[in-house]
Amino acid sequence: MPFKNRLFYIIISAVSILTDLLLLNFILIKNSLFNTDSDKNEVLLLVIILLNLLWGILHYLFNLIDYPRFKQRKKIIFNTLNAFLFWFFCFLLLHQLIFNSMPADEYYMLKILFLLLCLMAGKLFYDVLFKFISKKGFCQLNVIIIGYSKNTEILEDYFLKNPWTGFRYFGFVHEGKCPAKYCLSNDYKNLIQLIEQYRIDEVFINMDVIGDEVKHELLNISINYPVRLNIIPDLDGFPPYRLGYQRFDQMPVISVGTDDFTALFNKFLKQTFDLTFSLIIFAVFLWWLMPLISLLIKLDSKGPVFFRQIRTGYKNRTFTCLKFRTMYLNKDADLKQASKDDERITKVGKFLRKFSLDELPQFINVLLGQMSIVGPRPHMLQLNEKFSRLVPGYSTRHRFKPGMTGLAQVRGFRGETKNTDDMLARIRFDIFYIENWSIWLDLKIIFLTLKNIITGKSMGY
Which tens digit of pLDDT belongs to each residue from 279-323? Predict the structure, then answer.
């Protein structure tokens, strides 16, 4: 990266963190959030210094100090929120340990909320500022693409349609006929001349369409010129999953279908949330609601209270999925999906299905570690076998524990799966959920599930 670009990053990052610290100290000192006597001023000063240092560290750990060209604003908000929650927890802990009390100001929570909103607004402001400056031509990187293909043509369209990313695109270098919109040269021998003429900062290379001589030439260019080389992988035929990067000694490897859930802390966080949420629901509602529903089922029709069905779960392991029985006893229960106006459904079962109360026993599956509160819904074995052959990427959903509710369900894909197109739509949402998982996304899905049930938008029948 050219010196002027590095300097710009340093300045905007420094101004961003200084703005944060001014806001933090204004709220901490000016608004007297600390409940302490004047004789502890020296200790108070030390605590404030520690909290300032902590925010600086969190600013770095949560990647708030950088303004990448492709960072989504939603990611900026989530990172700021996560960093602030950690900082606020440490603030309360220090206050309790040192001053042996919680903040006494009755409005301190409002002040904390105001501080959080100001921090988020500041981050978004600097993001808008960075993109505005980049769009106007300042702090741009000069780029070219080497080797024409459909993939590199997509990249060309991206550069042309998104000037705010800060890439100034000059065109293709491709030997022979080049159908691209911008073609700088039809001869790879002109590479050095073009790099010097246009002061190229980054080169994007399609390695599959260039020969060994050109590869060696590019290697020499990367050694002798301040140019970054970017390799474009040929992933035609692969599903559009998120990519990851690993190194095995000196061997770079691209991973197809990566997700944030592979991190040990994220697994611990989700499992802790599942257990805590389930225990709270049991303690508040299920201890009396489940016996009541069981009694109504028994009075309504003959048969067991629970409907048990073998379904496919995490890593293709089968488990017994529990539901309240909503149908009369029938031989097709494990073969035929429930449909609208299904004659097999009992009167009580119709009510339970309408409000998704038949799913409540699955909290037991969650406590047993077989399911999660949120995740891809488990399917009947027959459907699982059928769609795993017909739907590309279907088995990806088994990288997660199945959920009581999921992103596909709150987006309207709930109930009977009538055809392959229905399942394709569900799988797209499942894959998006897996690759973009966060505890905040889980909370959003839970909220939307409750909203759909209360407002009657549930598609269950």
Answer: 999 999 999 999 999 999 999 989 999 999 999 999 889 999 999
CA distances from 124 to 18, 119, 121, 138, 284 (A): 15, 9, 5, 19, 40
Read off the pLDDT of each residue in 46-73 and give the average, rounded to a whole number. Answer: 78
Report the C-alpha gap between 321 and 312 in whole angstroms: 9
147 pairs with which residues across the strands?
A: none
| Exposed e or buried b per residue across 73-99, where buried means at least 16 C-beta atoms within 10 angstroms of its C-beta | eeebebbbebbbebbeeebeebbeebb
Q: How far apart are CA 241 and CA 258, in angstroms?
A: 8
Bridge partners, residue 380, by sequence: 311
* Residues 149, 131 share a domain: no
Asked whether residue 163 falls in the same domain as residue 125, the answer is no
From 135, 151, 172, give the residue that closes a domain: 135
pTM over 0.70: no
DSSP 92-130: HHHHHHHHSS----TTHHHHHHHHHHHHHHHHHHHHHHH
DSSP-based helix, strand, coil % in the chain, nearest 5: 55, 15, 30
H helix or E strand, kind and range, residue 307: strand 306-312
Q: Which of 135, 151, 173 is the last residue of a domain?
A: 135
Top-ranked range on mean pLDDT: pick from 32-36, 202-206, 219-223: 202-206
Residue 334 parent element (H or E): none
Token output for 199 = 């002061």
Residue 65 has pLDDT above 50, yes or no: yes
